[in-house]
Structure to design on (118 residues):
């Protein structure tokens, strides 16, 4: 069993294989799929596949209103973690945060203003 220790992942081939082997599909709603981990009974949400969108696999705190869970903060943190920070400052007006590696924006402006997901 590949143990998923983070709360959010990009749904790459490796993660999709883990879902297929270690998770059970419970429900589908509003462009999401709800999965239950067969080992620890945790619940996770997978975005429906869309060729124009990045697909995320997110651990849920509960199944109550699972399709409405706001994972935006987790997505921004994942963007920051996956890209890393540079020593340059974000070029957004009045922003003092460091920019992400290889782009000129911090994680918040990259995600919220520029639509960068990965």
């Amino acid at each position: 069993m590949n143990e998923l220790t983070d709360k959010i992942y990009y749904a790459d081939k490796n993660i999709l294989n883990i879902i297929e082997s270690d998770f059970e599909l419970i429900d589908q709603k509003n462009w999401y799929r709800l999965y239950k981990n067969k080992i620890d009974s945790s619940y996770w949400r997978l975005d429906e596949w869309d060729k124009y969108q990045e697909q995320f696999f997110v651990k849920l705190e509960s199944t109550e209103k699972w399709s409405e869970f706001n994972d935006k903060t987790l997505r921004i943190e994942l963007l920051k973690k996956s890209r890393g920070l540079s020593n340059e400052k974000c070029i957004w007006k009045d922003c003092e945060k460091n920019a992400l590696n290889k782009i000129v924006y911090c994680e918040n402006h990259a995600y919220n203003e520029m639509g960068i997901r990965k």
In short: The two ends are 26 Å apart (CA to CA).
